[in-house]
# Entry
Amino acid sequence: MSICVVGHSNPDTDSVAAAISFANYLKAQGKDAKACMQTSADKLNPESTTVLKRFGLAAPEEISDAAGKDVALVDFSDIGQAPANIKEANVVAIVDHHKIGDITTNEPIYFNAQPVGCTCTVLNEMYKNNGVDLPKDIAGAMLAAILSDTVNFKSPTCTDADKAAVADLKNVAGVDDTDELFMEMLKAKSSVDGVPIKDLIFRDYKDFDMNGNKVGCGQLELATLDQVADMRDDLLKGLQEVKADGRHTVLLMLTDVVKEGTDLVVVSDDPSIVEKAFNQKLEGTSMWIDGMMSRKKQTVPNMQKAFGC
# Structure
């Protein structure tokens, strides 16, 4: 049976590139594997679509149900971010850079999770340490993923290992100007004109269980907050609809990459929890948090602490 290598729901560039990279790595070791993702190619986010096109890679195969399948997980280990019926799948490996989630297995598996800025940084190390040849096109996608996840090294999640991986991968991929590559991705990622509100909210979105409360957090990385100025009311209405689907709180990080901060939009049963998490008051339904760039390291941990996790 072929191993389906899949990233988290609402896949971002790291999730997609890691699935492609790890599937290739497994095949190089003589295993039957294929890259998968939890969406169709036509619904993949603009940044990931741009990266695949630039490096000439096909989009991973869509998977919606994991029951009865051999699966390897990349860029997550939480049940809530997995394909349907993940408990009925045979999880054979996990490669990640987040906290350890709640997926369990019946027997030992390969598990490689490191505190770095991107799953593709971990995978680059695996390729190097095991002498596996890295194709130029896959190296390009991995490079793009690291630049995206670390916000071109501006994110607090960025480590020296990420910078070293970029130095390795740019040579393999033949990319001389990583700033140019990042700006091409940012232009695609921050494009909002004509995009349905729900698509913007779910472009880069994850749900979390915080002490029995379902909390959602989306993020839009923008060149300037002016890009969404005319749609603030519609975004708020969309968040309220998302919250009504059984969530305690929904956050939308409007991250200004140039100013290096986030306008955090909040819809919650108890907004005081969010105020406690970030030690400041909401102005209406949002608050500006200077220096906030990372959902993983700055937003979610603060919220988990405020919820008593």
Remarks:
- DSSP finds ten helices and eleven strands in the chain.
